[in-house]
Amino acid sequence: MDRYETVQLFNKPYLATSLQDFWGRRWNRYASNILRETVHKPIRKMLTGFVGVGAARVLTLICSLVVSGVLHEMLFYYITCGKKPTWEVTCYFVLQGLSMAFEASFKKCVRIKEWPTWNLLHPVVSAIWTCGFVVVTFFWLLVLPVWRDVQNSCDLWSN
């Protein structure tokens, strides 16, 4: 009989020191692996010849998070009892992707300019900043819209 290895779904996301670390290595690693293999790698391979390596990385990052956003939008469609999508859920993931692209560009600029690393954030501060950004945007673009929609309708027990 074949042996199957289980993937640890979460890897201490509260210790993430960057958005790339949070989404790529610590939060829902199963979904990250699926998106990497089915969206990110094929699109990156296709785009690299047209736009170059750097632009292809950014575009595939955004594409992967748009796909994730649309999938989550479908889940939220059912959570809100079939309410018309507001696309706030997808905006959340696009915002995370744009923020990761900005973060990667900033890190590259620090390396190229050879700025001293002492003025970079301490890992504890960076972890608090990362988790804070994820939580605040999560509440703003995911929790509030669902809460608003579920409170306004969804009479499951009225029959």
Structure in words:
- The chain is 72% helix and 0% strand.
- The protein is an all-alpha fold and 159 residues long.
- α2 (29-51) packs across α3 and α4 (88-113) runs antiparallel to α5.
- The N and C termini lie far apart (49 Å).
- 16% of the residues are buried.
Mean pLDDT: 86
What is the H-and-E element order? HHHHH
Model regions low in confidence, pLDDT < 50 over at least 5 residues: none
Major sheet summary line: none
Beta fraction of the residues? under 5%
Structural class: mainly alpha
Shape: globular
Using DSSP, what is the number of strands?
A: 0
| Rg over CA atoms | 18 Å
What is the number of helices?
Answer: 5
C-alpha end-to-end distance: 49 Å
Q: Helix coverage percent of residues?
A: over 70%
List keywords for this structure.
0% strand; mainly alpha; 5 helices
Write a compact overview of the structure shown.
The chain has helices spanning 19-26, 29-51, 53-79, 88-113, 123-152. With 159 residues, the chain is mostly helical.
Per-chain topology:
Layout: H1 19-26, H2 29-51, H3 53-79, H4 88-113, H5 123-152
Helix pairs in contact: 2-3, 3-4, 4-5
